[in-house]
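Translate sequence into structure tokens.
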Amino acid sequence: MKIDFAGKYKLWILISAVFILAGLILIPIRGLNLGVDFAGGSFMYVNIGQPYDVEELRTLVAEKGIVATVAYAGVDNEDAVLRIRHMEGLDEKLDELKAAMQEKYALLPGQFSVDTVGPVIGRELTMNAIWALIIASGLILVYIWFRFEFKSAVVAVLALVHDVLIMVATVSLLNIQINSPFVAVMLTIVGYSINDTIVVFDRIRENNKRFGKKMSKAEIVNKSTAETLTRSINTAFTTLLVVVALYVFGVEAVREFAMPLIVGIIGGAYSSIFIAAPIWAVWDERSKKPRAETAA
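Result follows.
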């Protein structure tokens, strides 16, 4: 395939920058839709003990003025778990909700269980998530530096930052609620994307040894990326089949996990093909120009 991956690197970066900026600009305007895990709130577990319609329960919760996600729980889907956002007068609203559920499902007081998560715990989760990303990125940088070179390591980590920003921009644009599963999604994408990037870099190293004196770095990147393109697309496509199925047929809690994962897989494949290798080629060629001019 004759695609100028390296020569059009500015176009690829511009596409990503427009999408990322569109999402990041909305954050200070309306903020991120932080869930109970990060913003604080309550978890209500209800042992209904009989089949029920989750949509009816969601309607009942909304009628009481409570902002919450409602999902099935238990082996036979006869239980419910409510993730309730913190708000003023929540205790009174929860009492009203319990009374309504007792009347509707003939429940006893012992069939309710409520756990509260404070904002302090949410801040700790946020810091733990940030540190997890920093440590993972740092270890990846050291590994690729050892296996390839320093430039490859820095570019690979920049591509991972790109993937994380793509997911953050997506949840901002779509107003997707962010809970602890989102952290798992980010770390999953970091591992998934770096694997694809390493495959491209490995082919670049092979071609650089064979054609380094005959071809420019941009030509080597174009050749290597084209040779691994089918593999990258097939890997992303087959993974997307499973995740899209989870999103279409899964419950609400699974969809909150699946949508950022879909975006992360697409963004990871994009960064491996259009971001990492082209930037490496431009950096490597520019870093060697001053040496050549000095030698001349």
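Note: The chain has a mean pLDDT of 85.
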